[in-house]
Design a protein that fits this description.
Blueprint lengths: L12 H11 L4 E5 L2 E4 H18 L5 E5 L4 H12 L3 E4 L6 H11 L3 E4 L11 E3 L1 E2 L9 E2 L20 E6 L9 E5 H15 L6 E4 L6 H14 L2 E4 L6 H11 L3 E4 L1 H9 L13 E4 L6 H10 L4 E7 L6 E5 L1 H6 L6 E2 L3 E6 L13 E7 L5 E2 L3 H7 E2 L2 E10 L5 E6 L3 E4 L2 E4 H8 L5 E11 L3 E10 L7 H8 L11 E5 L12 H6 L9
Parallel strand pairs: 1-12, 3-4, 3-5, 5-6, 11-12, 11-13, 13-14, 14-15, 27-28
Antiparallel strand pairs: 1-2, 7-8, 9-10, 10-20, 15-16, 16-17, 18-19, 19-22, 21-22, 22-23, 24-25, 26-27
């Protein structure tokens, strides 16, 4: 599988694959349970898959992937890229009708799926499977095919062509697809590796959905580029299954969200015994309680807990907070990754603000998206003069560390005063007996909006409304105190673990529970 014109620093994902094949042909590229795929074998698999796709798709165009967290996903992803197509990942748990509706809206030429998701129907749905027929590594197999003809894999590459369309979370507005080019995805993945100290011999365990921006760039693309190993968690994330996967692959790093970190912190010691090979645990995506991090630092002393901040539109990485800095600046999300610039700008006039003043976080760098797919208006709203307006509120200290204070989109305006939802939520999570909390504004004839807090209690001692108000009273200004408090068994979440604020406001929540 050849392609000429390779440079010292490839700017196209397939050139990165070729370099890794040339330099590390027998190194494990993919680990999935007991199955192993070397870079040489991965190259053969990509070639076979590309030949098949070339034989059934007239033009590569936009190709959907719904293959779960499997080696087939990686192979199909690279095959689409090799043909000059654009990858459109779908969440594993996305409803079928939602997938098909978006596929039609985007104009996909095909959706690649497997037995697990073969219930997809209509349109150009192609079923592909991996096979272990050789008794070891997985060769690529597509059943019942006509003879294959080779694609033109030696076509000139364009680093600025779209590589992938990643879905935004859609927690506060309708979902969009973020366009990352080959160049931007590689820039972000390389900056990530530098910021967390990763070398070429990392074994990165993917525990989240392959469709997530973090998994895409900081794991899949990063490991193909570095010649490292991509380990895939079989099945559902649980402390037991996660530990087994870490041990089986000898994983050195992984990326988790706070809900996963919490599960690990609450697991018995024996469940964490298999995690000794981990050198780094990268986490982000939502707030996490300090006691959870303290628990894991004690129980996993060999693993550095590295906090990150970003968003899909940024490629996705913006900052990194290493362990030593976290001790000096608890509450910060870190400093900009290499090649990323951060400014704080006034929400009133857009002017740059000096250190320690709060405003909107705006960023620019090679990893930032080229825009939203087929949505020029939405792109113009957030990309201005090369700067991405994140919609996040925060401030920079004198050393360049970023501190977040909320999101512009989550403002509640009560009695003419602006209240940031995340500020109240942070205080609520400190109430003894509170497991999680979220707030939203609801219509109020007198105030315009009043603040409604929704709380999930921990097991055992359960706080009452009176307990919550007694705790918050000395800590918050009166206009920031919730007018209404409700208790629920769980908060609605998006697929990546963030609070679904649209779903939260739609909940049929009863009156205050003062038990």
């Amino acid at each position: 599988m050849g392609m000429g014109g390779r440079s010292a620093a490839p700017q196209h994902v397939i050139e990165c694959l070729h370099r890794s094949i040339d330099e590390r042909p027998m190194h494990n590229a993919i680990v999935f349970g007991r199955q192993r795929l070397t870079f040489a074998e991965l190259g053969d698999a990509v070639q076979q898959c590309a030949e098949f796709l070339h034989s059934v798709i007239a033009s590569p165009g936009l190709v959907g992937l719904r293959l779960g967290r499997t080696p087939e996903y990686v192979v199909a992803y690279l095959a689409v890229a090799a043909l000059g197509g654009v990858v459109v990942p779908f969440d594993d748990d996305a409803p079928t009708e939602e997938v098909l509706s978006e596929a039609r809206a985007l104009g996909l030429v095909a959706i690649l799926t497997n037995r697990k998701f073969a219930h997809l129907h209509g349109g150009a749905v192609i079923q592909v499977e991996g096979s272990d027929s050789r008794g070891g590594p997985i060769p690529w197999a597509v059943r019942g095919l006509a003879p294959l003809r080779p694609p033109a894999l030696a076509q000139p590459v364009n680093p600025d062509a779209p590589l992938v369309l990643l879905r935004t979370s859609g927690s506060t507005w309708r979902p969009k697809r973020v366009m990352l080019t080959h160049r931007s995805a590689l820039a972000s993945s390389r900056a990530h590796r530098l910021s967390v100290g990763h070398g070429p011999d990392e074994v990165s365990l993917v525990a989240l959905s392959m469709s997530y921006g973090y998994c895409h760039t900081t794991q899949l693309v990063a490991q193909i580029d570095a010649g490292g190993t991509l380990a895939l968690l079989p099945g559902t994330f649980l402390p037991r299954t996660f530990g087994e996967a870490v041990w089986a692959a000898g994983a050195t790093t992984t990326t988790l969200v706070p809900s996963m970190m919490t599960m690990l912190a609450r697991a018995p010691d024996r469940k964490l015994a298999d995690l000794a090979s981990l050198r780094t645990i990268v986490f982000g995506g939502a707030p996490i309680r300090a006691d959870i991090l303290d628990n894991l630092r004690v129980r996993l002393p060999r693993a550095e807990l590295i906090q990150t901040y970003g968003q899909t539109e940024a490629g996705p990485r913006i900052t990194t907070l290493r362990a030593d800095a976290a001790q000096m600046r608890p509450g910060s999300v870190g400093r900009a990754i290499p090649g990323m610039r951060i400014e704080i700008r006034s929400t009133e006039n857009g002017e740059s603000l000096p250190p320690c003043q709060t405003g909107e976080v705006v960023v620019c760098g090679d990893g930032v998206m080229s825009g939203y797919f087929d949505d020029a208006a939405a792109t113009a709203e957030v990309l201005r003069d090369g700067w991405l307006h994140t919609g996040d509120l925060g401030w920079l200290d004198d050393a360049g560390f970023l501190w977040l204070s909320g999101r512009m989109r989550n403002l509640i305006i009560t009695a003419g005063l602006n209240v940031v939802a995340e500020e109240i939520e942070a205080h609520l999570r400190q109430v003894p007996g509170v497991a999680d909390a979220a707030v939203f504004g609801e219509p109020d004839e007198l105030r315009g909006e009043s603040i409604h807090a929704v709380i999930v209690r921990l097991g055992g001692a359960a706080p009452t409304e009176r307990d919550v108000r007694t705790f918050l009273g000395p800590r918050m200004q009166p206009h920031k105190l919730p007018r209404r408090i409700s208790f629920v068994s769980e908060l609605p979440k998006t697929s990546n673990g963030k609070v679904d604020r649209v779903g939260l406001a739609r909940l049929r929540i009863g009156g205050n529970d003062d038990r």
